[in-house]
Amino acid sequence: MEATPGYQLALQQLTDSALPTGAFAHSLGFETYIERGLVRDEASFGVWLTAFARQQLTFSDGLGIRFLYEDHPVAELDSLLTAQLLPRQLREASVKMGGRLLEIGTDVFPSPALEEYRGLVTSGRASGHQPLAFAVVAHSLGVPLNEALAAYLFAAVTSLTQNAVRAIPLGQNAGQRLLRVAADGVAAAVERVGNLTLDDFGAVSPGLEISQMRHERQRARMFMS
Predict the structure, then answer these.
(1) Average pLDDT of the chain, as a whole number
(2) What is the CATH number of the domain that holds 181?
(3) Taking 70 as the threshold, does the pLDDT of residue 1 lie above it?
(4) Model's pTM, two decimal places?
(5) Residues 6+ apart with CB under 8 A from 42
(6) Is there a contact between 136 and 68 (Cβ–Cβ < 8 Å)?
(7) What is the number of structural domains in the chain?
(8) Phi and psi (nearest 5°) for 73?
């Protein structure tokens, strides 16, 4: 029997939906589409989720993870993400979830690289974004880049789907069907991330960003973003 890679169980823990980063409190913009009646069922949420994975998860989070693996300075990537996340709520969500991940990682998966990034955040020289916190931990654990990307992206779409099941609402079986389709989108996103350049970093659909900006002025909300 082939031995399980040493990082595999740690990676499962790091991407488990029960990890207390606060992801359950964020829609990352889809709640605005619900309020406008554009996302209302399994099919329409699937369209939104596909667009989100192809855009923000690929060109911001996924590309940030790849660049960190390629030894781009974490402080520089942190500044770029802060500048690129134009919607205030999305920027704050990334920092809040990143901060929790830095705390958890320091307790459970400590490493010099993680201490360095947390030190930059503590001293005010970095914000502490979720994808970079994840990348630092995963890289320190020896997780290969493509596995780290696939795990992070699928964890993100899983969290959003669970939130949509509550918010729209959808049935649990509908959520599982959505995740099965999303898995193919995640595989495509991982491949696409490998072919992008620094010039592509942060290239996101304006429609997604506008919906995320509108959310903070929405009359009634279930989610923080």
Answers:
(1) 93
(2) 1.10.4190.10
(3) no
(4) 0.94
(5) 170, 174, 177, 178
(6) yes
(7) 1
(8) -60, 130
Burial class (CB in 10 A: 0-12, 13-18, 19+), 197: exposed
Residue 196 structural domain:
24-215
Rg of the chain's alpha carbons, rounded to an integer?
A: 17
The burial of 129, by beta-carbon neighbours within 10 Å (0-12 exposed, 13-18 middle, 19 or more buried), is given as buried
Two tokens at 89? 């709520």
Is 45 in contact with 168 (CB distance < 8 Å)? yes
Is the separation of the CB atoms in 64 and 128 below 8 Å? no
pLDDT of res. 12: 94
Spatial CA neighbour of 205 closest among 37, 89, 48, 20? 48
First to last CA, the chain: 45
Query: pLDDT tens digits for 127-169?
Result: 999 999 999 999 999 999 999 999 999 999 999 999 999 999 9
Residue 223 lies in a domain: no
The answer to whether the beta carbons of residues 157 and 50 sit under 8 Å apart is no
Q: Is residue 9 part of a domain?
A: no
In a domain, 220, yes or no: no
Compute CA distances 14 → 2, 9, 162, 212, whole Å: 23, 9, 17, 26
pLDDT for residue 41: 96
In this structure, is residue 221 part of a structural domain?
A: no
User: 10 Å Cβ neighbour count for 198?
Assistant: 10
